[in-house]
Each structure stands twice: as C-alpha cells, then as structure tokens.
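User: Sequence in, structure out. Go.
Assistant: Echoing your sequence, followed by the structure tokens.
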Amino acid sequence: MYTVTVILFWTSLAGLCFSYVGYPLLVHLVSRWKPSPRRPTVEPAVDELPDVTVLIAAHNAEHHIGQRIHNILACDYPQDRLTIAVASDGSTDATVREVRRFDHARIQAIPFRQRRGKVLTLVDAVRQLRSEVIVFTDASSRFDRDSLRQLARHFVDPQLGLATGKVSIVDEHGSPSESIYWRTEMMVRRSEARLGIMLGGSGAIYAIRRRLFVEPPCPVINDDLVLPMLTHLRHGCRFVFDETARAYALSTGGLAGEFRRRSRIGAGAFQCLPGLRELLQWRHAKQALAFGAHKLLRWICPFLLVALIVTNLSLASSWHYRLFLYVQAAAYLLALFGLVVPKRGRVTRIAHVASSFLVMNLALLTGFFRWVFDPRNVVWNPTPRPTREAASPILRNL
C-alpha cells in the first residue's frame, strides 16, 4: 500500500507539472525546429478574396449585437464580399429586432425560437449560408480593422480549410488583462500550429471553409474546440494560426465570472469526448498525443490535485513528504490570500496567480460534476461582459 501511495503521489505531481510547465515548454522548443508555416507571399487582390459570412450565435445579446455589427462593418473587407449573420438561440429580448434595424441586404437575422444550445444553432445556421468562408465569432468581442482580411486571405490557397486568429484579453479601460495562463495558451497554440496540430480555435475568431464544415455527431457546448477539430480530422486540410488577425475580448470581471466560464468549459470538455472519437484512428496519432497532453491532462488536473493532497497526508510521517505538505499548505493559503487582497505589488500579484490557478481547477471540477449529473445539457449562458458604452474610448473605437 505504501508503494502504491508513493507512485500515486509522484504520478500526480508529474502530471500537474507536465500539464502546466512541461508540455508548453516541450511544444515550444520542438516547434522552433520547424520551418515557419507558409504565408501568402503576395497579398491577394480584392477580387481574389473569398466571399465571407461572419456568423454570430447570440442569446439575449441586445446590448452587444448592434455594437458588434458596427465593428464588423468597420473592417476593411470588401463590402460586396461580406455578409453578417446573427443566429439567435431562443433569445427573449430584442436581439433579433436590433439586427433587423440595420435593414441591410447583407445583414441577416436567423431566429430560432427554441433554445437548443450554441452548436445546434450554429449548425442550422451554416446550412442556410452560401459564402465560401464562414468566420465564427461572438457578440461581445471586437475585431481589429484588418482582422477579417488577414484571416480570409489564407483561403486563396485551395488546400487550406481552417484559420484562427489571436485573442487578446483587455479590461474596461482597454489595457491588457491577460493572465499568465492565457499568454501561455496563446504561445502553445502558436507552437502547435507550426507542428501541424489543430486543437480547436478561439471562439472570438476562427474561420472554416464552408464545404468542409463537419456537423458534430452529438450536441456539445464547446464549439470552438469541436468544430475546427472535426473539420481537420475528417478532411486533413491545412490550417493556419495568424497572429495578425486579432480579436479583443473584455475580461470577465473578476474570478467569479472566470469561475462560471471555466465551469461551463469543464462541463463541455468531458461532453465532447465521444464526438472526437476519430482521434483514436492511427493516422491521427500525433493529434491524439497532443490532445491528451494539452487538453485531457489539463481537464483532470483537479483530480490530480486532490490525489496529491490525500497521498501527501498519508506519507507525512517521512520528513521530506512532510516538507512538501507544508509547501502545499502555504500555496493554498497564498491562493486564499489572493482572493481577498487587491493586486498591488509583487507578492499580491503572485497571490493572484495562485488564486487563478485554484479557481480554474475548482471550476473544472464543478464542470465535471455538472456533466456527470446532466450530460446532455448543451444550453450555454454567455459570460456577462461590459457593453461598449461602459468601456473606455479605446474599446469604443474597435
């Protein structure tokens, strides 16, 4: 029994370290040996750019949707090749009415009276679209003026089926508000793209060639993970991660909002596994290994944390294990300290990092139990974010 406990302790610790430190470093270093992915050597002419539909799945987004449409119209993409479609997932407010107020031939509302979840709404909306390329985004994010052109130019290559951009998190003043976790995540996605590994996109900005779009075999919550991955797995098409195609998302407004968002992601994470069973095919071995290291291992980290505490308590009779138990206790106390103090100075910033780590894993654990008790629930509640009027002039200009 002692041997089993020791093995479980060190396995849990190794899994946590590899998930948050080892894999990001490994994939970053390996990707540096790879040549840079192909980019258009010459910017395509206007008449070479594809017809694009920007598709927004919205639920009760009346306070955001008008601002979002104005932001997309302000992009420098040719207006005769741009369509905006807003698919309303059972909205009970004025979302559809706000869209129809534009009275524009290339701005359409696709209302669905019954609320069925984001992915089913997107799937039914895609069936009604005819553009060559569909850009998926949400109601509360913003594009840079050139983001659509930067993303769509890659589809001049007929072998390319997917493109995703970079998402920056900003606060209500327009200042960067990205956590260490998010900066690391963007670095990992960039590295994976260089290695030819597609593990989803960013919900604020990703694009799929319409004829390659694959409908998921079962309803899920996490569209930005499942839809790009299914397209890549089924068709083996090329894809690109373009950091010049930028989207901005307002921060969730504290750890409480982040907890709700992560809990939803956690529930959707386990829910999506049956729909990604194509990963089990040998030809997707590289993809499957990356998925296990980057996604699956991250999702089970809450259980590894619990196992680490329990086994450490069992082994505390040995002085070196007892020392590690003190380190764990100090880390959790630091995380609790970060929950109640403002972020001022180096110590409190470190405390907030510990708090974010704790909250994220508690949210994933909550999401797991949400999935266990209600595995078929795909209804999503969009994360509340400030409207443009409540944000700074920097954001209002996006």
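User: And one key feature?
Assistant: The beta strands are 52-58, 82-89, 107-112, 133-137, 142-143, 160-170, 206-209, 238-250.
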